[in-house]
Design brief:
single chain; 591 residues; six-stranded mixed β-sheet; 20 helices
Length: 591
């Protein structure tokens, strides 16, 4: 496509110069003889018209080739680099994504790619007009050396002006692109946190935060526009100044017989044609700083390190059999912060259920993320059936393990779509998973059942309903390793008991599953064959729940504190109910 565009631009450039030659020839051989003789012939007029129209038609063909070729090339490049960035986002580990805001990532894939290739469409024209300038220079030299000198003075001024412009506009363009990303980040945060904003009445504050960033972007673009506002008129003025200089010098040369009238018209017309090539070159240079800034931000993503290495190994055994999990001296830290996990050694035997219990911030969720390889540990090794996760091929871990995180995410899709997520599951399998997750009743009560659209992030559902759909999403895949990161915290205790019992039946069947559950409630912990107590990123104790309750003070304090809090809430509810009943009795008349 670039070759097509460049060929069209070359045709256009040559025909533009040819039009000057044609106009000079018509002036010398048709117009001046007509004035001299007082009449002209039809044949002479036809030749003049055919020459001008023929050159114009060929020029139009060049314009069409250039515009179509350049447009296709530009949008193909934008599409290619958006796909490259998207693939890079998918390839980079979660630890990399945690360092960037969502708005910045959206800006990289959208406005930065657009800025990077903003000047590629006029670039073939700029290359073509270089041919025009070279041809024009040759024609000027062939016509008259004095007029050629005038042209050679005008052309270098473009280079000087462009250099000064580039130095002035580059930092302003960089700042403008950064502010575009900042505005996008603020908008994304506000929309993403709409529930918090509305419930806490922070609309005015969010509006002001967005307004402040928008005004910064506005001011940055105005500063950039001021520089461009000085540059564009200067580029426009150069050809006009060249025409005046050419007319002055050409009139003097004409009076002394060095050139004829047709040659003077040709040269003057060539100088008027310089406005377009200089404007095209100026536009490319005007957009170049923005393109460079966009390219820097795009390649910052494309050249980012930290990708997860994959091998070509695969898990053995049947797809319906559980996997055994082992952690050996695993450590993990977020950036330069203190380690969240430190020398964690842990085994999840095949088909067994392990409960991980610990205070807030002890590293439980990080441990769950490492087990499904959302991130790789900074130290130590994670093994599935004695195979290092780094040696497994891509997709092997996600096909064997399923994680139900604390924060449930649902897409703006149907119930079926949120559970299947593109997987090839029948409705019977989806309903079976919903029954296990105790979600079949409320789904049947929805207006369209499995075809009901749940809204963005599942806003039409309660927290407990969203958690049950997330559990069904994991269960339907019949994972060999199931990780529940406090995945039933938003459901009623009675519903939680039914869910845990259903999971116990599922994992206890022929399709055995190893289960690791992050838990606080005693009912959840009771599901486990063994409990692991973690504190400050280390495994403090391990054993049956009753043993840890009797021997480990920290574990006993944590579990009983949660139970005491639940008991106090239940007691308060009972007292409120008794008070309400007593108030009703006082209001009733005596029998």
């Amino acid at each position: 496509m670039y070759a097509v565009a460049l060929a069209g631009s070359t045709i256009y450039a040559l025909m533009t110069v040819a039009s000057a030659y044609a106009l000079g020839w018509v002036t010398q051989h048709t117009i001046l003889p007509a004035f001299a003789d007082g009449h002209t012939s039809a044949g002479s007029l036809l030749i003049a018209a055919a020459l001008i129209i023929g050159v114009s038609i060929v020029k139009c063909v060049g314009v069409v080739m250039r515009r179509i070729g350049a447009g296709i090339m530009q949008y193909r490049l934008m599409g290619t680099y958006r796909r490259r960035i998207t693939r890079q986002y998918l390839r980079l580990p979660l630890s990399w994504h945690q360092d960037w805001t969502t708005g910045a990532l959206l800006s990289n894939a959208n406005s930065d790619v657009e800025a990077m290739w903003s000047n590629i469409a006029p670039f073939p024209l700029a290359c073509g007009v270089i041919i025009m300038l070279v041809t024009t220079a040759g024609l000027l030299v062939a016509t008259d050396w004095v007029l050629a000198i005038v042209g050679f003075v005008v052309f270098p001024l473009v280079g000087v002006l462009t250099y000064v412009y580039g130095r002035a506009v580059a930092p302003r363009a960089m700042r403008a692109q950064e502010l575009r990303g900042a505005v996008s980040s603020v908008a994304h945060d506000s929309f993403d946190g709409a529930l918090v904003v509305k419930t806490l009445g922070r609309e005015a504050d969010e509006t002001e935060r967005f307004r402040a960033r928008s005004l910064e972007l506005r001011d940055g673009l105005i500063r950039l526009g001021r520089v461009r506002g000085l540059f564009d008129p200067a580029i426009e003025a150069l050809p006009s100044l060249g025409v005046l200089a050419a007319l002055l010098a050409g009139s003097y040369r004409l009076q002394h017989g060095a050139i004829n009238t047709g040659e003077l018209v040709r040269v003057a017309y060539l100088f008027t044609l310089l406005a377009l090539p200089l404007r095209a070159i100026g536009y490319v240079f005007a957009e170049m700083p923005r393109s460079v800034v966009g390219a820097e931000r795009v390649f910052r993503v494309l050249e980012a390190q930290g990708s997860m290495p994959y091998g070509d190994g695969s898990l053995g055994g049947s797809a319906d059999s559980a996997v055994g999990v082992s952690l050996r001296d695993v450590g993990y830290a977020y950036g330069d912060a203190a380690p969240v996990l430190d020398e964690v050694t842990l085994d999840v035997p095949i088909g067994r259920t392990i409960a991980v219990v610990g205070p807030t911030g002890s590293g439980k969720s990080t441990l769950a993320g490492i087990l499904v390889r959302l991130v790789d540990p900074t130290d130590g090794t994670v093994l599935y059936d004695d195979l290092d996760l780094r040696t497994l091929r891509q997709g092997e871990v996600s096909s064997a393990a399923a994680l139900v995180p604390q924060q449930t995410f649902l897409f703006d899709d149907t119930v079926r779509g949120n559970i299947a997520l593109g997987g090839d599951f029948t409705d019977e399998e989806v309903w079976a998973a919903l029954r296990t997750a105790q979600g079949d009743r409320f789904v049947r009560a929805l207006p369209r059942g499995l075809d009901t659209v749940v809204g963005e992030r599942g806003t039409t559902l309660s927290g407990g309903q969203r958690q049950r759909l997330a559990l069904a999403r994991a269960v339907v895949r019949r994972p060999r390793l199931l990780l529940l990161d406090d995945a039933t915290s938003s459901v009623d205790p009675s519903v939680e008991q039914a869910i845990l019992a259903g999971l116990a039946r599922t994992t206890g069947s022929a399709t055995a599953t190893s289960v690791l559950v992050v838990a606080y409630r005693r009912a959840t912990i009771a599901l486990a064959d063994e409990v692991v107590f973690v504190d400050e990123g280390r495994v403090v104790a391990r054993g049956p729940h009753e043993v840890l309750l009797a021997e480990v003070d920290g574990y006993r304090a944590l579990v009983t504190a949660y139970e005491q809090a639940e008991a106090e809430v239940e007691l308060a509810d009972d007292l409120d109910a008794e008070l309400d009943a007593g108030a009703r009795d006082d209001r009733e008349p005596a029998a």
